[in-house]
Amino acid sequence: MTKVNMTVNGKAVSRNVSGETLLSEFLREDLRLTGTHIGCDTSQCGACVVHINGKAVKACTTLAAATDGADVTTIEGLANGELHPMQAAFKEHHGLQCGFCTPGMIMSGVDMVNRYKAEGRELTAEAVRHELEGNICRCTGYHNIVKAVQDAATKM
To answer: What's the CATH code, domain 85-155?
Structure first.
């Protein structure tokens, strides 16, 4: 067992975890933050994306012990009293259907917008589609997801 100390959604967390515990498992099972979905266990679908120290990471292939001292944000920690602009844009543009991929899409979208803005790059529809290649949605066809990300970019 390894003692892990981190901040999750603004709250200090300290737990003992086994060396092979994945961050997705730790968040869901130990902290009961079930918005981080597990879809593939192979880092292909993107349903498990969270932010570690402000950067998007797939939690299904990240060891919980490797996040000692980190600042972790899950979909549950994104809103602050009201929906985050990315969440609101997904709602407004119908960027979800079944909702399984939505937390990962939103977390990836926030990271994408933050990076593009920091680099002064334009977030085109083509760029959004390219950036979301690591996130699989079996329901929407991505059209409304792309519109949501681009709309949120104007409000973030």
So the answer is: 1.10.150.120
